[in-house]
Amino acid sequence: MRFRSDSNEDTLDINLIPLIDVLLVMLIFLAVTTTFTRQGVLKVLLPQAQAQAASPAVIEITVSQDGRFAVGQQLIPGADMAALTAALTLAQKGLEDPVVVIHADAMAAHQFVMHAMQAARDAGLGRVQFAAQISP
Questions:
Q1: Out of 12, 31, 83, 95, which could bridge 57 as a Cys pair, Cβ 3.0 to 4.6 Å?
Q2: Of 89, 126, 130, 99, the residue nearest 113 (C-alpha)
């Protein structure tokens, strides 16, 4: 007597590996996109203090479209880097760790801005910032 049949039926099984892969990708996505907010459990009123904000000394370099330079309100004759470096060295006397702010014309060549940065470095000024106009 034979109770088993010789049919080639495939047994159905669930492959868990792709499911685990999808769940791990979703977990990573949720971990990356989650924002953490601090909720205030206690309402605290912090004390007030009066102090003057220390404003750093500023040396302004203006670069025109045609490559002329001005340090503060003094026009530097020609586009000479040595004269610009000398003017920056003179402008930093008596100032403690000044900041150089470069006001460059929007149409000024990149090379002129690089000359201003090089002159600031040659004058021993390491803090350089760029001024920009915020459009409404």
A1: 95
A2: 130
